[in-house]
Amino acid sequence: MSSDSSNSSCRSSSSEEPAFTIDIEKVKQFRQKGQRSSVSAEVYGMFNQKAKYVPPCFPKDASQEEAIIAKLSKSFMFSALGDQDKQLLV
C-alpha cells in the first residue's frame, strides 16, 4: 500500500499554519487612507505648446454643405445648435 503513504504526505494537517496571513492593522491603515487622487498625463511644456484651437477646413461645394446641414438638423445631438455653430461644423 505504497499509494497510501504517498497521499499522506500531500495531506495537510490541522496543526500547520495557513498559507498566508492577514495583518488586520495593515488592512485598517490601508482603508483609512481614503480614495487615491487622480493622475493626469497631459503635460504642457516645450514639446506640447498650448495654443488656440483652429478647426480644420475641408472645402465643400454648396450641395455638399446643404446635405450635411440637413443631416445635422435631423440628429438629436446637433439639433440644438444654431446656424452659426452648424456652419462652423460644416
Q: Got a strand count?
A: 0
Query: Element order, helices and strands?
Result: HHHH
Strand content: under 5%
Tell the overall outline: elongated
- Tally of separate helices: 4
Helix- and strand-based class? mainly alpha
Radius of gyration based on Cα positions: 34 Å
> Could you name the ranges where pLDDT drops below 50 across 5 or more consecutive residues?
1-9
Helix content: 40-55%
Instruction: State mean pLDDT (0 to 100 scale).
Output: 75
Quote the distance from N terminus to C terminus: 86 Å
Walkthrough of the structure:
The protein has 90 residues and is an all-alpha fold. It has a domain at 60-90. Helix content is 42%, strand content 0%. It has helices spanning 2-10, 24-32, 62-74, 83-89. The relative contact order is 0.06. Mean pLDDT is 75; it is low at 1-9.
Helix and strand topology:
Blueprint (H helix, E strand, L loop, with lengths): L1 H9 L13 H9 L29 H13 L8 H7 L1
Quick summary:
The protein has 90 residues and is an all-alpha fold.
List keywords for this structure.
mainly alpha; disordered N terminus; 90 residues; single chain
